[in-house]
Amino acid sequence: MASKSGQLAHQEAQREAAMALLLEAGAVSECEVDPGIYINQHRGTEGARDLGLRLIKVKDRRVSAFKNRVELSDAIDLAFGDADDRCELCAKRAKAG
């Protein structure tokens, strides 16, 4: 059984890989002002999922965090769910001044 810290590291690696696929597919964008804030581009996850599946077939290192297609798909869904409609930090700054 993997250690709790090992599991967390694996989950974070999957999240990062999934977010990179979403970025490359244009499903999300990163805020230009606040790095690490991802904005939903309302294009869905299909492009990221297709890209990930193609990369799994050729054993690309960008998808090495995933044991199978189900893990890839689940991680993409979770990462996409983390994306917001806007950067709340930018919205707060705009509202303040």
Provide the descriptors you would attach to this structure in a database record.
2 strands, 4 helices, 97 residues, mainly alpha
Domain count: 1
The CATH class is Mainly Alpha
What is the rounded distance between the termini? 52 Å
Strand content: 5-15%
Reading the helices and strands in chain order gives: HEEHHH
The counted number of beta strands is 2
Structure description:
The protein has 97 residues and is mainly alpha-helical. The protein has one domain (4-96): Orthogonal Bundle (Arc Repressor Mutant, subunit A). It has helices spanning 4-25, 46-57, 69-82, 88-96, and strands at 28-30, 38-40. It has a two-stranded antiparallel ribbon. The N and C termini lie far apart (52 Å).
List the helices and strands and how they pair.
Elements: H1 4-25, E1 28-30, E2 38-40, H2 46-57, H3 69-82, H4 88-96
Antiparallel strand pairs: 1-2
Short description:
Helices cover 59% and strands 6% of the residues. It is mostly helical and 97 residues long.
